[in-house]
Design goal:
Blueprint lengths: L3 E7 L8 E9 L7 E6 L5 E7 L2 E7 L5 E7 L4 H10 L1 E7 L5 E6 L5 E7 L5 E7 L5 E9 L2 E8 L4 E8 L2 E8 L5 E2 L5 E2 L1 H5 L8 E4 L7 H4 L3 E6 L2 E6 L5 E8 L5 E7 L11 E8 L2 E8 L2 E8 L5 E8 L11 E4 L6 E4 L2 H9 L4 E7 L2 E11 L22 H10 L1 E10 L15 H9 L5 E7 L4 E7 L4 E7 L3
Parallel strand pairs: 17-18
Antiparallel strand pairs: 1-2, 2-33, 3-4, 4-5, 5-6, 7-8, 8-9, 9-10, 11-12, 12-13, 13-14, 15-16, 18-19, 19-20, 20-21, 22-23, 23-24, 24-25, 26-27, 26-30, 28-29, 29-30, 31-32, 32-33
Amino acid sequence: MKHFLLVILCIFSFHQITCQDKVTDTPIKLSNSAKSYDFVDKDGNIHFFFIDRPNMHHLKYDSDLNLLFQRKYGADIEGRLGFITSQFDIYGFTIDDDENINLYLTNLKKAKFLNFKINKKGNFISKLFKLKFKKEDYVTQFNYDNHYYYITSSKNSSLLNIYDFHGDNFVRKVLSFEKYPFLNAKDKRVTLNDVLIPDHDKEVITIIKNDLPNSIETASNKFKIYQNKNNIELTLDHRNSVTRILKFNLNNENVSIENFDQPRFKMGNPIYLKSNSFIQDNRLYQIIISEKNIVVTITDRESKKQLKQFEASLKDNLEFASSPIIVEGGRFEDYRELSKTKQFLNKVATSSPGITAYQNDNQLQLNIGVAKTIAGGLPMIGIPGMSVGNIGSVNFTVTAYSAYTSTRSTYVNSILNPENFKKIDEELKTNIFDLVSDHMEELKLKFKTIVELDTMFVVAGYDKKNKAYSLIKFEEQ
């Protein structure tokens, strides 16, 4: 098997990123209709699967991007492949105690799951699960610690159900929040299910990865999940008066709730009033905004002590802002600046505002504003029941990158000292998504995806011209 190696060096100043990009090409022939899936296993190896009927291809690389094996599963699974591509998408991945690879496929809408097991010899075993979801609504799903988790909310109740898949079996655990009262946006007593699934809508919850830059589009969601190993926190910001944090653990049935009131200010009688929050490093960042005022607070979650508050009215300058008021991706201009706080307040308060926090070296970077998706970036995957282009599965790094690089935004940046939260007079430091974005258009690849490893980010895609699958390494140093 022939491999090609290309090394690109990128050296930046102290305030930027130093990178060394290595491109490894693995010869493979894929059609335009192939669907690709990627997962990182418990040992840090990357697996790429390509369903390209009548075959399925499997590439496995170690954490240094060395190819460990390349397999093609052929006509003996053609019937199963047709079943997969017509009814199912791959969302989960585990490796069991016998080193069998387990792919979990679901159509989500009909609550059918297929376990597709591949043993060391490349033989396949499939097992169909029919879960009784008639009285449950989908909430979210993710892979963690060699398990695939699927979470639902029981209708007319305050119960969450965790389906924990490992190997060719699963266990169901019920978490009860019944003892806690819940109110809707109009302060009417409801259940948790009523809050999370208004009008039994589609997915309404965003999973936040704090080690990545997050977009305003991602942060503007009223319901967000934060994962710290086995600990899960679900924030509710559907009421303007309070942020509620639902806490539970994947390994037990203990639950709790924290409440943090939104800041109050003399707002008169605003026509619009919106709020939201963001969690980062055990600090809660809250924003409440009307067409007349904005207040941003930073609170220590453990002590519940307020660490900093910024506020401004429509006649004030945004003293906490380190940038102009920026509008990106407008209908007639890609970039423009607004001169008045009143313009910013009107745009943000009339939509769904968000706030993000990201620590980049000695800079605490806040992003405050409102966003709307535009074309570009990578396909937005991770939306159940919806496979855009030829990319499948749930890869939240791709989701975060796509939102970060493909939104129309009105926002301000704020650069703070992470210790005392005073504004720093510095340029905004480049993050890993900025670096990847600078190179993405140069990469003439199909089925692009991004994989996050412990020490690097890997952009992968199919080079149709050279009939090879390419891996490009990016590192923050």
